[in-house]
Design goal:
With 490 residues, the chain is mostly helical. Helices cover 47% and strands 6% of the residues. The structure holds iron/sulfur cluster.
Length: 490
């Protein structure tokens, strides 16, 4: 049996054919030299890699090297590797004579099945359409040809604002992680690397994310039993005092390959069938994994290499330093300050702060999508190029002009006010677009629409907003005010 080379995001048992298969793992320092990752992300990746090597014992050959090529020079035997998750790594492995590249693992719908589905579509590719295909193809939450419960999507039921008069959702938090000697060693190494000049962003902190398949499986079980029921209704809601809400906080575990996503989908489905877990919540979770995660993974490979550079809304401004450096203390706007602090302190916030606070603000200000892909990739514990390309370029920044979504995800402060408890403690007022207390999101929304209106005339979903824009009598004032605010922290 050939030795299986495992990258640092291929760490679960499902990346091996046999539990005794010989393994190669290479820890490359150059990856961390190239760009400034979040310190907690570097810790998590190294911790997961070293924990897996310790678990495998003599079965694994663990090589520490500056680069993958240098590491490979120390190994003479033929190798096989599962299809890597970035174009750069794929080019590397495909150019190595002794290495056989196998199909990808760690995703549910294969690249071939996705391409077959996508090729048969005319025009834009849509999540709802793909998700329905995937549900049928993998027979998830279906009864014969029909969707369980009579609907493919319970999205409309899953948009509750947060409960009032509480700062926390009434669910037990994700199980705590206990650090061990491997974490202590990783922390010492990262301190040393920093002293040598390798730069990180964000703050160090106790590891709160699983680094082993066992920790990830325990968190999945706890989520399905105790948190899944509340996930659906509150998946879009935000509370300043409760960053995790009822989210699974498993994205990094799936993206490190610690958990098999189809097994997680089946666990949620089983909770619905055997234990009466609410269908809307189960469907919402399944949609994230079988639907959205696989959709963006497959789009990364399906779209050509130039997709990452798309900038069809002509967003030309450079992402400012306060944002790049996660300087939450420089920001007065409560929502943005809190979310940026979450990125600084944990390298993680759930998908709505990413989309409706961070992505929304960047979209309004016209920051370059390519720089944002890089920022999200480096600053989030679960960020990888395949994750962030379609999520940022297509979903969040609409820089592809609708190849995968129906409209830009731009909104004013009213949306944030409805879906969070942020606005009450903010010096700005979500209803105001001009003046001292003008909410930067509300003013920014109109400024954005005015900037891109020429690019969106045929978009029916934007027609109502553009009509409202036409009726705005103080638009010039809004524009002058926001020009003055520029890219300074609001
Ligand atoms: Fe955010 Fe505006 Fe609400 Fe302040 S008023 S928290 S800036 S949406």
């Amino acid at each position: 049996m050939s030795r299986r080379w495992l990258f640092a995001d291929q760490l679960g048992p499902h990346f091996l054919d046999d539990r005794h298969q010989p393994v190669l793992m290479i820890e490359s320092k150059a990856v961390f030299r190239r760009r400034a990752f979040h310190r907690q992300k570097a810790h998590l990746v190294l911790s997961a890699l070293r924990h897996r090597a310790a678990e495998l014992g003599d079965q694994a050959r663990y090589v520490r090297a500056e680069t993958y090529r240098e590491g490979l020079r120390k190994v003479r035997e033929p190798l096989e590797v599962c299809h890597p998750t970035s174009r750069r790594a794929r080019t590397l492995v495909q150019g190595l004579p002794r290495v056989t590249v196998l199909p990808p693992r760690g995703f549910i719908t294969s690249l071939t099945d996705f391409a077959g589905w996508a090729d048969a579509r005319r025009g834009a590719l849509r999540l709802d359409d793909f998700y329905r295909f995937a549900r049928q193809h993998h027979e998830v939450l279906v009864a014969g040809d029909e969707p369980e419960g009579g609907r493919w999507s319970f999205d409309a039921d899953n948009r509750e604002p947060p409960p009032k008069e509480t700062d926390r959702l009434d669910v037990p938090g994700p199980p705590r992680i206990t650090e061990d000697d491997i974490d202590a060693e990783v922390r010492r190494d990262l301190d040393r690397w920093e002293a040598e000049g390798i730069r990180f962003v964000g703050r160090d902190g106790p590891r709160f994310l699983p680094a082993t398949p066992a920790e990830a499986t325990a968190r999945l079980r706890h989520f399905v039993r105790h948190r899944l029921a509340k996930f659906g209704p509150y998946e879009d809601a935000m509370l300043a005092g409760d960053p995790f809400m009822a989210h699974s906080v498993l994205s990094s575990s799936f993206n490190l390959g610690l958990l098999d996503p189809l097994a997680a989908v089946r666990a949620a489905e089983q909770a619905y069938r055997d234990r009466g877990a609410p269908l809307a919540s189960v469907e919402g979770f399944v949609r994230q994994l079988l639907g959205w995660r696989d959709f963006v993974w497959n789009l990364y490979w399906y779209f050509d290499v130039g997709y990452r550079g798309s900038n069809r809304l002509a967003a030309r401004r450079t992402v400012p330093d306060w944002w790049q450096e996660l300087d939450a203390d420089a920001v007065d706007a409560r929502c943005l300050s809190d979310v940026l602090a979450g990125v600084r302190d944990r390298g993680w916030v759930h998908h709505i702060p990413r989309l409706m606070v961070l992505g929304n603000y960047a979209l309004q200000r016209g920051w370059r999508p390519g720089e944002l892909v890089d920022w999200f990739h480096r600053s989030f514990v679960d960020g990888y190029e395949w994750v962030m390309t379609a999520n940022v370029v297509g979903m969040s920044q609409y820089a592809d002009l609708g190849q995968m979504t129906t409209k830009p995800y731009a909104s004013g402060g009213a949306y944030i006010n409805r879906m969070s408890d942020y606005c009450g403690g903010c010096p700005y007022d979500p209803r105001r677009r001009v003046g001292e207390r003008a909410c930067p999101f509300t003013a920014g929304y109109w400024m954005f629409l005015d900037r891109v209106r020429g690019t969106l005339p045929g978009n029916a979903r934007m027609a109502r907003s553009l009509k409202q824009l036409d009726r705005l009598r103080d638009l010039d004032e809004v524009k002058a005010q926001e020009r003055k605010r520029g890219d300074r922290a609001p």
